[in-house]
Design goal:
Keywords (chain A): Acyltransferase, Transferase
Number of helices of chain B: 2
Number of strands of chain A: 14
Order of helices and strands of chain B: HHEEEEEEEE
Structural class of chain A: alpha/beta
GO molecular function (chain A): hydroxymethylglutaryl-CoA synthase activity
Distance between the termini of chain B: 30 Å
Number of domains of chain B: 2
Shape of chain A: globular
CATH architecture of the largest domain in chain B: Beta Barrel
Distance between the termini of chain A: 53 Å
Strand order of the largest sheet of chain B: 4-5-6-8-7
Shape of chain B: globular
Domain Beta-ketoacyl-[acyl-carrier-protein] synthase III C-terminal (chain A): 218-306
Number of helices of chain A: 13
Structural class of chain B: mainly beta
Strand content of chain B: 35-45%
Pfam families (chain A): ACP_syn_III_C
CATH class of the largest domain in chain A: Alpha Beta
Order of helices and strands of chain A: EEHHEHEHEHEEEEEHEHHHHEEHHEH
Oligomer: heterodimer
Helix content of chain B: under 10%
Largest sheet of chain B: 5 strands, mixed, barrel
CATH topology of the largest domain in chain A: Peroxisomal Thiolase, Chain A, domain 1
Strand content of chain A: 15-25%
Strand order of the largest sheet of chain A: 5-4-6-7-1-8-13-12-11
Protein name (chain A): Beta-ketoacyl-[acyl-carrier-protein] synthase III C-terminal domain-containing protein
Largest sheet of chain A: 9 strands, mixed
């Protein structure tokens, strides 16, 4: 059966707390924390971007899979912060991971669901027997305009998954995608920061698409919420995934291991994939896991995974998400954060 | 850095590829055409371990133009587990965190960008473990 043979994540060490951003813009930190259920977020170092994050996540996936990288036939990276407008991130990442030259490369962009898009295509190519292995990465150094509500959540990180047929740690049982034209959040060519439709990003966008994909995949697979040990829903803030999970019949305990947003923030294309990676870090053989992403524009990809016996063998070969979230954190003040994120205009 | 030179150095900068002399076994990093130990010209490609330790270090406070916004930053000579010595930045830490003998691992980072429109140069740096 086709599934994941190796997975891995990477998060930068830098952090900024909600209080620090709220202080800068005269906002009430406690109200923001209560409203969005966020405490802090990851910040990329000045020498980190989608490419470097993807390489580190990819290395961790290879450590777990223990396969020859040259056997990977495709590498797909989903992100809305690819460093080049023209030159795929995947070319650098494949070179760094030793996957080149006999490999198909493409970069994906679909707001916060570009990572699961990459996963869907990688899975499909292995299932179609076009290649032995395919790697998919969701990674971002998310943008949010200064002073916008997004600035409290937009963070950096990513996760990588290698799909194959043998020695899988989690098999793909079912998939479903749900997409409409919904202008809830966008960034025009050349614009530095994205714009969004405020409350329009909720019911007609996030909730409609996750519920659409979630209900469809439950029906297709003949499963109920209670059949799953864990579920992960895209995490633009702390509140939305808990709320959409409840609407689909899931309890908070099922969401807990993958609900990494209070300490990580929203890593956009890396959000639900990293929640899934954190869930694999604790899942046991036989567990069913539901993953539903959401990307503005808008769409959702849903996957049902069944965890195999192999998980206990590979889990400790690389850093777990909990360790990446909690160890070695370096806190920034707003001035340092503005410098790190290139928000200060400098001379050439 | 001109694009052709950057491109030539990708194997060593991205994947820590080194040359091991087929005659005497001496590792060269970056790879060389002639062994500095025995003068042989045949090598096999190998990779440096991604772990090592700090042999010595310094902190740069007056930097070249492309690195001015990073000061103060650390540069160390790191000995990889295969015994090869590499000069590298040690990032994600303060100058006072560094000590001779501390263990590090190599990570993949941006080295610098050629302005806002040129190529982005990537390669290895080290972080404390």
């Amino acid at each position: 059966m086709v599934g994941i043979v190796g997975y891995g994540s990477y998060l930068p060490r830098y952090r900024i707390k909600v209080e620090e951003i709220a202080k800068q813009w005269g906002r009430n930190a406690e109200a923001v924390k209560r409203g969005l259920l966020l405490k802090e977020k990851t910040v990329p170092g000045m020498d980190e971007d989608t490419i470097t994050i993807s390489v580190e996540a990819g290395k961790n996936a290879l450590r777990r899979a223990q396969i020859d990288p040259t056997e990977i036939g495709a590498l797909y990276i989903g992100s809305e912060s690819h460093p080049y407008a023209v030159k795929p991130s995947g070319t650098v990442v494949a070179e760094a991971l030793g996957i080149v030259p006999d490999v198909h490369i493409a970069d994906y962009e679909f707001a916060c669901k570009a990572g699961t898009e990459a996963m869907f295509v990688a899975y499909s190519l292995v299932k179609a027997e076009q290649m032995k292995y395919a790697m998919a990465i969701g990674s971002d150094t998310s943008q949010g305009a200064p002073g916008d509500a997004l600035e409290f959540s937009a963070s950096a990180g990513g996760s990588a998954f290698i799909f194959g047929k043998e020695n899988t740690v989690a098999d793909v049982i079912e998939t479903h995608s749900y997409t409409t034209d919904t202008p809830d959040f966008w960034r025009r060519e050349g614009a530095f920061y994205p714009l969004h439709g405020g409350r329009f990003t909720g019911a007609p966008a996030y909730f409609k698409h996750i519920l659409g994909a979630g209900e469809a995949i439950l029906k297709k697979s003949g499963l109920r919420a209670s059949d799953f040990t864990y579920a992960i829903f895209h995490m633009p803030n702390g509140k939305f995934p808990l709320s959409v999970g409840k609407k689909l019949g899931f309890k908070k305990e099922q969401l807990e291991p993958g609900w990494v947003v209070p300490l990580m923030g929203n890593t956009y294309s890396g959000s639900s994939p990293t929640g899934f990676s954190a869930t694999l870090d604790v899942a046991q053989p036989g567990n069913l896991v539901l993953l539903v992403s959401f990307g503005s524009g808008a769409g959702s990809d849903a996957f049902v995974f069944k965890v195999t016996e192999k998980i206990n063998e590979v889990r400790d070969r690389a850093e777990k998400v909990k360790d990446l979230l909690e160890n070695g954190r370096i806190y920034l003040d707003y001035g340092q954060y503005a410098k790190f994120r290139g928000k200060i205009i400098m001379n050439e | 850095m001109p694009s052709p030179r950057y491109h030539r150095e990708i194997p060593q900068r991205y994947r820590l590829e080194a040359a091991k002399c087929k005659e005497c076994g001496r590792m060269s990093f970056p790879p060389r055409r002639v062994c500095s130990n025995c003068g042989a010209r045949e090598f096999e490609m190998t990779k440096l371990s991604d772990h090592g330790k700090i042999l010595t270090y310094t902190t740069i406070r007056v930097a070249p133009k492309d690195f001015e916004n990073q000061v103060p930053y650390n540069v160390a000579i790191v000995e990889s587990e295969n015994g090869v010595r590499v000069t590298t930045q040690v990032v994600d830490c303060k100058p006072e965190d560094l000590e001779i003998g501390k263990r590090v691992k190599f990570v993949f980072r941006k080295l610098y960008s050629e302005g806002h429109t040129g190529i982005i140069c990537y390669g290895y740096k080290a972080v404390l473990i």
